[in-house]
Amino acid sequence: MSEADDGTMEHVSNQWNYLFDMDGVLVREEHLVPGADELIAELRENQTPFMVLTNNSIYTPRDLRARLLNMRLDIPEESIWTSALATAQFLQTQRPGGSAYVVGESGLTTALHNAGYVITERDPDYVVLGETRTYSFEAITRAIRLVRNGARFIATNPDETGPSAEGPLPATGAVAALIEKATGRRPYFVGKPNPLMMRSALRRMGAHSENTLMVGDRMDTDVLSGLEAGLQTVLVLSGISERETAEQFPYRPTRVIDSVKALVGASQDPFHQA
Asked: pLDDT tens for residues 197-226?
């Protein structure tokens, strides 16, 4: 967007790039959000750059692609960006060829291996905490001791709970709080709402913030990180937020829509009716 002579905001004429949160935006649990497949097909037909972002560090992009394909949503593997990938990229730039003790699943360990990191329990440079469905008390205890002995503390994302069929599950942020309490060391969170994750996705796309949209269902992660990275933001109501949710925060999204179906046929000019 740019400022016109009358003080109003004009949207840049360049093609828009899209960053999508995954859960609550394109899919909800194991079901496709209506219109998501049409929108992705439209973007691909128009050769509009897009990426799907998720704070979930459990799965590799290949795993997530397979999950989405099962719901008839065709997302290329290279268009999926996870907090695990962002964390690995961050550590690679901070300390190339370093070592880490990892509490997490294959999505995180694979990303770190591919970044040239050694996974070890012996005097690691970092303790890296990710999401897992089976947090081990033994692994958490080892992480606490390593952090107390000087390992730097990194976590993939600050989400305190995650969804399941039975109800909320403790997630990375909750376990990070436990380790922080036991060590007195606060972790550095790489995933949303850290704008670092947005910027790393933009670099991967070769895109610029001024003509990129972040489409998400959470004000406190998706919209906030989009704003802090200089993106336009679209809040969808197909996930965790309701229309009144936006009024509870001191910042606002550029546009609020019921679901991504509202962007079908309008992806080249998403603010025409905003």
From this structure: 999 999 999 999 999 999 999 998 999 999
Paired tokens of 134:
């089976």
Q: Is the distance from CB of 142 to CB of 121 less than 8 angstroms? A: yes
CB 155 within 8 A of CB 187: yes
- Residues recognised as catalytic: 21, 23
What pTM value is reported for the model? 0.89
Which residue ranges form the domains of the chain, and what is each CATH number? 16-79+192-207+220-263 (3.40.50.1000), 84-189 (3.40.50.1000)
pLDDT for 167-196, tens place per residue?
Answer: 778 899 999 999 999 999 999 999 999 999
User: Mean pLDDT over residues 112-127, rounded?
Assistant: 98
Cα angle, residue 57 at apex, residues 76 and 224 outer, rounded to 5°: 90
> In this structure, what are the phi and psi dihedrals at residue 178, rounded to the nearest 5 degrees?
-60, -45
Using CB atoms within 10 A of its CB, is residue 83 exposed (0-12), middle (13-18) or buried (19+)? Answer: buried
